[in-house]
Records
---
Amino acid sequence: MVMGYSWPITNYCFPERPVMPPLKTTVACPNCRLPVPVVLEQLFDVTQDPDAKRRFLSGQFNLINCPNCRFQGQAASILVYHDADKELLLSFTPMGLGLPQAEQERAVGKLVNEVINKLPQEKRKGYLLNPKPAFTLQGMIDRIYEADGITKEMLDAQRAKAQLMQKLLTASDEQIKALVAENDAQIDETFFQILAASAQAAAAAGNEAAAQRMVDVQNKVLAHSRFGSQYRERQARVEAAVRELQALGDKLTPDRLMELILKAESDDQVAAYVSLARPLVDYAFFESLTRRIDRAAGDEKARLTQRRDLILRMTQDIDAAAKARLQETAALLRKLVEAPDLERALRESAPQIDETFLAVLNENIAAAQKAGRPEVVARLTAISDGIHRLIQESAPPEIKLVNELLDLPTDAEAEAALQARANEITPELVSTLNYLAENLRQNGRADMADRLEKLYGVALGQVMAANWKK
């Protein structure tokens, strides 16, 4: 599905009305009052930039990082949020700015004009003339959630989970056990989503210690909670289904897949089969299943019908999620293409960059080359190079060493280079080489797996020799 996707390059490289870029300025640090640089974003127009909603709700905007007193927080600023699909136009003016009413109205009016000017004539409606003011930033966030159908009760429940997360992050191991026992009913999928999002935000902000603490707490909560126990059981069933499909390899046929799906003991197993072998679950697959249902009777007919409905819902969800992910990826790539500060934009967007994004990026580089657009190729290549720099920066030492060894032309050169760096060979490197070799072989990359296995042998020999000398 990814490989078939390509949006027209001519449409996004030269927008008629570019999204209002953030403003580079300086503000007084709220703590020490010294001037600090900040990238100020005041307009969050979801209609023009779908990623704006995520940035706004995550609070990852207008961030102050004072080099003098180490204060970290948000710069106070007038904000406008717009979502044309929901006819939602909100404004917020912090009281601390102390602006006269007339000046507030002028500033908000300027931002609203930016919104209106980007809309086609047929989408300019009455709500645009009356932005709804929020008295607090949290109130503005609540209105956005309410427009999504999330009630105050649901928001209160989510805040309670966030508060529980904060308590767990500052608790000792024994206190974590007690807190989990006391609040087991609150610990569910939403709780772990909040924790994961917080860890991603911390990592994106460069706070590796906080991100690692959140991962440690997540593992402890999984170990002690009822949800964690259920999660492990589900994971075991899914992993068993994955191993079964991997063992079949090229021998997996639509008929064999149907047998596996129909014999599956849980919805989790069905989901694993369907998601991993989605191309086989096509129109012919459903026709064959329908014929089985027509031949069945009684309880078996009802069971097969229920299973078919489940498979249909799962395929629809998978396809919808894939489509939404591609749309998000397209929006992110547009944002990076148009970003005035590419390095900063890449760092802020790091949590969203995955294999899907890289596949779409490579597709567009190839399309730009074919279309004879050297300026677009240069910009997209700069994005690709920047991503690889980020990956290299954040990679553990053993991964960096493995990448360097894989870049060498021959196996002999890679082995010689590893032997020359014997002081960098650790048990962690040996484990990494073994894991990566197995993983690449399972994914059909036999050439790279062969090299890693040879390097694994060299590294293991070095570790054993070092231990023998002790």
---
Amino acid sequence: MKLPSEFIEKMERLLEDEASRFFSTYHEEKANGLRFNPLKIDRETFLTLVPFALSPVPFCPTGFYYDAHEQPGKHPYHAAGLYYIQEPSAMFVAEVLKPNPGEFVLDLCAAPGGKTTQLAAMMKNQGLIIANEIHPKRVKALSENIERFGITNALVTNETPEKLAKYFPGFFDKILVDAPCSGEGMFRKDEEAVQFWSQAHVEQCAIKQRHILDCAYEMLKEGGILVYSTCTFSPEENEQTIEAFLQTYDDLELLSIEKVHGIQPGRREWTNTNFEEMERTARLWPHSLKGEGHFVAKIKKTGPSPSWNGRYAKPNASKQMVREYRQFEQEVLQTEIEKPMYAFQHHLFALPDHCPNFDGLKVVRAGLHLGEAKKQRFEPNHALALSLKPQDVRYSLDLSSDSVECLKYLRGETIQTGEDRGWLLVTVDGYPLGWGKEVKGMVKNFYPKGLRIN
């Protein structure tokens, strides 16, 4: 790999004696990781079930390393949302924020959703997580990953940080700013990041990051916690960005992050004022642990915030639409969904508890997408299937992960069963994969077209 000469000079100057160890990592294989989904499976069952050789990521209880030759992204368990493929050092960030069930949480720069899915799993689908992504293309991937994980308490938005700051002053208990950055920690896994790198780009990123942090500050409650992270090494985007943020507001306290398993402190000598407290931040270096690299800072807002005086979202679904859904629920499910029912045209959603009014915001997903009202009938959405457990439905069709039938289902083909039970939940080794409709001995396939494999 050919690294930019300006980057090499800069890192040699910054790292001094450590530089050769740092640069030697570019001749090694990148670290591959996945995180199991505690909303669907526990650790022990997961380890017994999956056919990959895994070793634990020491700084993330749900994380594991896998070997480069494995292909977990192509396994049906991935389609069932049993795990998320994620670069290992990125897993540490959500562990630092650690939201509790019932809290109001914002992931401000959330795509593709690795950290959102991790935070939401910690919240056990209780409370509210707003996952925002400014780029329309990237927000689609974010929304799909939230769906696959069986997350029901997320509001996915496609907005600017400024617009959200106007809507949600002093609203959130916890905020994650996983900031857009120069991506120096991506070089081993993304050649494009190498081509894109320049010192000017680093400086542009730093300006953007400071602006995003200003917006996040407005939205944090008194006593609230903000975690800032990047996947880059440059001090301008890390220590110096946090230094500037702390200098701007006098009611912020930099909290200490535990340094174990090879995690290093931030560098005070890389700040502009030799700011001693910067050692409370954390750096994950590829030459100190198995991962591509991250910077993490944890900050508490100690001063008062404006109190949020917005309104909560009200159910707006027509009686007929709700009636059609309830009829489907009675015929197909063995569980009741008791949440505010919200309609976007013909599509019905079950909103998270205490969901704020989102009129005027670009909302991509509002809680759990239950399905669509069609002529005199209700057609369930894929998201509903992935949020259920097999015992939540009257009928299911279980396929073995290594069977031809499972492959056929993921390709969108029909499956012969010889029965006639109507809607059923198709599962893989007992874990929901999607819907099928059994009519006259054949299961019609409702696996979404965009997810089907060739």
